[in-house]
# Entry
Amino acid sequence: MGEPLSERWLDELWSDARARLPAHVWRYFVAGAREEVTAGEAAEAWRALRFRPRVLRDVRRVDTGVTLLGSSYRLPVGIAPSSLQRAADPRGELAMAGAAGTLGVPHVVSSNAGHAFAEIAAVGAPWWLQAYVTEARDECLPMLEAAVEAGASAVVLTVDTPFAAPKHDLPEADFEDLSWHRVNYGRRVCEGRAGRWAHDLGPDDLAWLASRTGLPVVVKGVLHPDDARLCVDAGASAVWVSNHGGRQLDRAMATATALPRIAAAVGDDAEVYVDGGIRSGLDVLAALALGADAVFVGRVPLLALAAGGEERLTEVLEQLARELVEGMQLAGVGGLREPPDVLA
# Structure
């Protein structure tokens, strides 16, 4: 692991990414829906939590390893899916996969990816597919089949996006060449009415995805504990607490607020993941303390990619790992099965 970054690494990351990106791409990456209330509250909701550490514990060594969907990972931190990664760096998902492999963390690839799944898989890191199901289900089958053939080990169904919510100051005309966008769907899905996201997702779609792919299904975009329980009862292997980074329903609750009740509703029947405003190793530790099995980060890796490609991204993920280990030691935690108490 390389040298620690400066204490202001996050500010520097945002600044460097903004300096390198065209203004319209920067705006797309950081935008929230409508008034951006939810997007603006995300990070502060984690910072508002307080730990109750333990003492007289042996923390000479701490174990950050985790098993997710039957596979072992070095850290309980994964890379969340995001679109337009090639607008951040020409290597896009290939660089994300490279950093994920180096750090031993799960990498979730958007169904809107700008590289073919087979290319991404060739990097050699384990990966999961994030899927938007189309209004006509058969239109997304070639994409699902391509992911399975390329070795995806899970499918993450996004359920909070019947359509992209309005965002201010995002003129699509500024993106002059997006010929690579959604490359895994094929031309028919990217034209006309074909390929519209489904407005009628239901519990049966989980079973349909599982049968079509043969993969465990993760449901992403859950904020209500009753919905979490519905997902588990319908066969979900994991529930992913997410408000889409504040990019869908504005004024939706923060994921830090939603997580404890969802973890309680799910219990030991499925795994629980969370994203939204995770900016540090302490945020990761807080999420684990509130009941998450793993945390996924989206904007941080995307902006790291923009700021310096795979090398910068690897440095940032290593920094999160260092901060997690430090937080665990200071909280008297030797492993992830014994997280500290955290108080709102």
